[in-house]
Amino acid sequence: MKKNNFILMDNLGVEHKNNKVLKNINMQIEHGEFVFLIGESGSGKTTLIELIQGRRMYNTGSLKIKDKELCQYNYIELQNLREMMGVVFQDTRLIEEWTVFENIAYKLEYLGYPFSLIKSKVEEVTADLKIDQCIKNLPRNLSGGERQRVNIARAIVANPQIIIADEPTANLDKANAKIVFELLKKKNKIGSTIIMSTHDPNFIKESEFRIIKLTKGEKVYDQCGSNYFI
């Protein structure tokens, strides 16, 4: 697939209560890239992720998504932007009154998929994530790791153009974390752009993907390859 600019940041800055959360961020992310976003807590990773989602605004500089300045998106355009994204939040945000199937199927229903396709897609992603045995369960009957995998399944089931995963493996054991990472790589191979924040050095050391590190709101590292050591 021919790559092209998907996300472009130019001297991007964010301030909150006179504190510079992000400072002069310059980067471009191309369609089809897999990018690790790393840094200590408070480094600005979550703020950067929220900006890309269009859930907060910047104070200085420029952020273009699909060649349009984000601050110029109207409400409908922002909704359309979010529809093409799959977001794995740090907190699972599952609807407690719905079954696992219903939680995962919701976006497909919203996008107008027929039930037969919804069923097959939900069954496929739950099997991939080893949660197919609890598809009829309510969230309150799930373990923390199962809840997180439902959260991930919901984000990726529609094969979104961009998957933004904020610490997706934080509550998972090593085996299930590897399953999630392999599935994200699979989605990347079929065209999804992946932005994954993580504290897990194992993924970084074992891959050739791009690594962007933030420190105190500044970009201090941006390279491809597994030569980076945290």
UniProtKB/TrEMBL annotation:
Stored PANTHER family: CELL DIVISION ATP-BINDING PROTEIN FTSE, IMPORT ATP-BINDING PROTEIN
Limits of the ABC transporter domain: 7-230
Coiled coil: none
InterPro entries: AAA+_ATPase (IPR003593), ABC_transporter-like_ATP-bd (IPR003439), ABC_transporter-like_CS (IPR017871), ABC_transpr_LolD-like (IPR015854), P-loop_NTPase (IPR027417), Sigma_54_int_dom_ATP-bd_1 (IPR025662)
Keyword Nucleotide-binding part of the UniProt annotation: yes
SUPFAM superfamilies, per database record: P-loop containing nucleoside triphosphate hydrolases
Protein name stated in the entry: ABC transporter domain-containing protein
GO cellular component, one term: plasma membrane
Organism: Enterococcus mundtii
GO molecular function ontology, one term from the record: ATP hydrolysis activity
Sorted UniProt keywords: ATP-binding, Nucleotide-binding
